[in-house]
Amino acid sequence: MADVTKINAADAVLKVIEEWGVDHIFGYPGGSFDDVMNALYDRQNTMKFIQVRHEEAGALSAAAESKLTGKLAVTMGSAGPGAVHLLNGLYDAKHDHTPVLALVAQVPQARMNMDFFQAIDEGPIFDDVAVFNRTATTAEGLPALIDTAIRQAYKYKGVAVVIIPKNLGWTEIADTFESTAKNHLAPLYPQPDPVAIDKAVEMIKAAKNPMVYFGIGAKNAGPELKAVSEKFKLPLVSSVIAKGIVEDTYPAYLGSTGRPAGKSGVEPGFSTDLILWVGNDVPFSIFLFNKRAKVIQIDIDNEKLGKRHHIDLPILADAKTALAALAAKGEELEPSNFFRAALANHKDWRKWQASFAKDTEQPLRPEPVFAAINKYADDNAVYGVDVGNININFMRLIDLKPEQKWTTSGQYATMGYGLPAAIGAKVAFPDRQVFSLSGDGGFAMMSQELLTAAKYHLQTINVVFSNETLGYIEAEQEDDTHQPLSGVDLIDNDWAKVAEGMGVKGYTIRTFDDIDKVFKAAVAEDGPTLIDVKLTHDMPFTTQHMFIDPAWQDPAKIKEFVTKYQAEDLKPFSAYLKDAEAGKL
């Protein structure tokens, strides 16, 4: 009998991961992971190790990469503190339903469960975050365990954790395992019920003010969303993370709804009488629409039907297939007054925003800066967007093009996401232009990852909007709880100098005249850059507490609101409806 080739179990782990199409791992070394680090050295021609400067950043980079590509990404952490550091990034992957494999080191089996150095009971801490969470018990079983974990991550679109005691990785095992990667097929989704499709068409025809509210579950259905909109004259509103499925310049796409949204995306939801709810699982959505509106919900997951809002008609199907079936039914409708009003409102909102694009006030308004980003971003640029007011400005002011991609921490909304996300994006798409966009609060949390960008010469453009406050929280304290500002103030910082100290080219923008020349220089650099934008302390226009309608709101509050936001040219949605009913639109 021929001799069987032997291999360290840690090397066998990497072989399985490679067979699933992964060629890099984000992580940080630790003594408890010397076995895997040795395997990474052995297999450096087929598996790259991306050394981040904090395990949280590695997990965030993996989560962002997975969200951008739809494929499994891998991160690792050492025993004890390294394992705990992973958790925040893994929770982001959990909440945004994306497949990530986390390799977690453990002390040798002989030292487990006896108060040893850096030894903690790691299994329980991952129970809540993971769809699959197992501790390896034999070296021979490690390859199959990794293979199973990857299948589970894909099946449940979540985090799979494999905890590896140090002694197992060094153990030699037979190199005979074959992964199941070649058997991995895309799932088949149910076809929509034709009776339900017919009923949906009748409900849309009978409604006076129908609209579409779509989420990330419609990510492959942009053309079908537009076809349904055009046939039945439905305005389109999305969740925040669904931005980009329909291009921002499409006239019937009103943007998102909720606090980060623009005025024109928020208002129609309170006047609608029917919502076509597509691939959406937004926790706040119950607050964003007329509670008496009828709802047709399309989703591939039966558990989500009726989860966030009462529904009148469930359709269990893939968004693309169901929308195509809808678009093929019935006759084209004439534009309703609601449809014409919604589009006119949105056109004027965009015109109002654009009116500030050449504003020269100091500190700077966001509109001139985002106009420059739109100008200098490549047609296939990728954005890693942090959490806070940056979400508001990105949602409203970036006009995404069809080939551009972006990612943020959606349902979990962890600050510090932008820079690690850009690193994950650049590793996944080395030939594409990548931006990170962050506020000064979020950026400070993961700013050490500029060292990662410098080490690997990752050509990223990292923009920090410095307004010396946790702006999103400031607005909540002022607008929601009406309390004195507490704990939100930040000290100013010279981020360009910090960047230079980390080997990254730094720029500072203080005036309108700085904007164009800085962005022009930054995008031409062949390595990572940082742009520190000294931004206004004024808060973005609030869409959650608008005082703009004289038909039912206090005139004094309207005057105060309009003056604060320079909103003299904006009209309430009710005024557009009246104009439509009078034949003026």
TrEMBL record:
**UniProt EC number:** 1.2.3.3
A GO molecular function term, named singly, is: pyruvate oxidase activity
Give one Pfam family. TPP_enzyme_M
Question: PROSITE patterns per the record?
Answer: TPP_ENZYMES
What InterPro entries does this protein map onto? DHS-like_NAD/FAD-binding_dom (IPR029035), POXB-like (IPR047211), Pyruvate_oxidase (IPR014092), THDP-binding (IPR029061), Thiamin_PyroP_enz_cen_dom (IPR012000), Thiamin_PyroP_enz_TPP-bd_dom (IPR012001), TPP-bd_CS (IPR000399), TPP_enzyme_TPP-bd (IPR011766)
Q: Where is the Thiamine pyrophosphate enzyme N-terminal TPP-binding domain?
A: 8-121
Alphabetical keyword list: Oxidoreductase, Pyruvate, Thiamine pyrophosphate
- Domain named Thiamine pyrophosphate enzyme central: residues: 197-326
Q: Tell me which residues make up the Thiamine pyrophosphate enzyme TPP-binding domain.
A: 386-533
Would the keyword Oxidoreductase turn up in this protein's UniProt record? yes
Q: Enzyme group, top EC level?
A: oxidoreductase
Q: Which family does it belong to?
A: Belongs to the TPP enzyme family.
PANTHER family cross-referenced by the UniProt entry: PYRUVATE DEHYDROGENASE [UBIQUINONE] (PTHR42981)
Protein name according to UniProt: Pyruvate oxidase
Query: Which organism encodes this protein?
Result: Loigolactobacillus jiayinensis
